[in-house]
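step: validate -> pass
step: tokenize input -> pass
step: predict -> running
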Amino acid sequence: DDRVVKNEMQLIETLFHMEHSGVKIDREYVKRASAYESERVDKYVDEWGKLIGSELIDSGEYLKPIFEGLGFTVPWTEKMEPNVDANVIADIPHESARILENYRDAEKRYTTLMGILTAADNNDLVHTSFKQSGTVTGRMSSWSPNLQNLSADDENEFPIRRSFVPQLGYFFVSIDYQQMEFRLLLDYANEEELIDRIMHGHDPHDSTAELTGLSRKAAKTLNFGLVYGMGIKKLGKAIGVGEAEAKAF
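step: predict -> pass
step: emit ->
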């Protein structure tokens, strides 16, 4: 379609200016945040050593015999490698699994922050690269570094998104489609009571929370989890209920 081609060609110029302009970071904030996460990494490595009596190495070959020695099963992947992904570790009811989860979180956050810091130029600007057809869904992708998938982690001591600040004379604007997919699903499901609430100004996730007795955060997980095919077991863990209750939802 010529219209698609024309639109994509116009977008090239916009993306060029975005990449060239960059996004500014608060360098001192990122340094404090990375130091904090580095301390967390060291803390969990130390806790693991005291509990298990050996170095913490995050690999399937290392972790499988340790967890199986504690009486837990570690399955194999399709490639016949030990599966120690987040879902498997979450199912292990032992203090060592919680230490590993916290270690992984701290390590991931530290790596992300150091990537941002390393990518910034002398003017504290990060110039990411955008791919117009970077995903199978048709969305753009961002790489070197990836600034498009930074978690909304406001509950953390140093939220990663706060690493970025507007350049002088500019400000940040947040725009979204206000639960577009969920609204389409409600219409398709003919959920008139919930549609009526939303049409009278209620937030969809607040409305679901009121109808189910869940927190807004859990209601949001429920709403989008159902849209995108989240399983019963994963839903239960995500919203903090048993499998029977998750199945009922």
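step: describe -> The beta strands are 23-25, 125-126, 129-131, 141-143, 164-165.
step: cleanup -> pass
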